Every structure is written in C-alpha cells, then in structure tokens.
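Re: the request from the purification team.
They wanted to know what the chain is likely to look like in 3D before they choose a buffer screen. I agreed to run a prediction and write the result into the notebook, where they can find it.
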Amino acid sequence: MRRLAVLGGAGGIGRALVARAVAEGWRVSVLDLPASLERHPVPDGVRAIPIDATDAGSVRAAFAQLEDGLEGFVNLAGFLLGMRKLESVEPDFWDEVVAGNLRAAFLTARAALPLLAKGDSPAMVQMVSGLAAHTRPGYGPYAACKAAMVSMTKTMALEAAPLIRVNAVGPGAVDTAFLRGGTGRSSEDGQTNLDIAAYSAMMPLKRIAVPSDVVGPVMFLLGADSAYMTGQVLWVNGGAYMP
C-alpha cells in the first residue's frame, strides 16, 4: 500500500485530498495544527499527527512517526493575513507570514525527503499560488513566500532527481476556510477577504475553484501518469492566468 503524508490535511483542500487518496488505496497520515485536527477529525484508518510546521523540533517529532518511509508528501499548509501594501507591512507581520508559509515549507520538505527516499516511485507536491507569478497589489508577503516556494520546488527537483520527483500546484482562489481566516487559525465562518461573485465573473470559466478542482492535479502529480515530470508548476485558475 502506498503511503502518503498530507501537511494541512485537515483544511478544505486537505480533507478532499485525503478522501480521494483513501478511496484510491493510499495509507494516509494527516499532519496539522492540533486545533485543526480537533475541529476536523480525520477519517477512520487515517493517522493524525499534530504539528507546528514552523518549529523545527515539532517537525522532527512529527516526521519521526513516519520513519518507515513515504511514497508521497503533499504540503498544503499556509495562510494569508489579509491585504495591505508592502509599505504598511510591519516586520512582525512579515515574519509571521514567512514563518507560516516559507519556513514551514522548507522544514517539512527537508524532513520528508529522506522518508521519500525509502519509498517506491516517490513524489512531493508543494501547494503554491497563482500569486507567485500573477502578482496583485496587497498580497506582497504571501506572494513572495509562494514565489520562493516555486524556486525551492525547482531546486529540490534537481537535487532529489532521479529518485524523487518534486512538483507544485498553483491554484487561484479556492472557496475554503482559507478565505475566511484559515483552518485552525479562525472560526472558519467569517467574512471572506475576497468578493467571490466579482471574482467568479472575471474568470473565463465563470466560477471560483472548489477543493476537488485542486485535488485532481495533486493526485496526477503523485501518480504514474506524471512519471516524467519534475520541477513543474501546474497552474489551476479557471483560465485567469496563462503563462
């Protein structure tokens, strides 16, 4: 049975991904904040591992529970603290966003690589963002982190080849708790920081993404159909951005 670890697996995209992976026969472990795991308990047969992905000690302890190895690792962790111009961003705000997005991605990828090296045809998928390349005002700290994660993905793809494939998915906005403060970081039912109706009207496909729109590309990058792909980003945005 193929083994998959999903960082942020208790979030909106994460829960959909876990359900799909379990249905396809993966043995899944979900790594997430304790508050997220409490709010969204994992399904039967799925292992829950609490983690603070910004803390190196917590990351080591969590990944030690996966010592038998992995065939897949997906990083869905990250959060957005609202819109503000870079000139208004305080250093503490910047540091918090960088820690929760870029530092967490680095620490967990570093911990996952030796476990993937034990697996059969292993693959890693990083969740970046359309904002990494399709810049918009007000999202500077978050966009910078996601752009850095694209570069990190490409570097890891080169350094881990030919054994481990490393790719990324870059979605546009997805209608989940992420837009309402984040899973485990908010009540998840607040006002969104995005006008969904206006956003949808601007999309060539005339709707906002839902979790299943992102799950399919992730599963593709984990599987044999993408066996000759590494260091790539799949942009999933309803046609809003076409590099």
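For the purification team: The chain has a mean pLDDT of 93.
Please add any questions underneath this entry.
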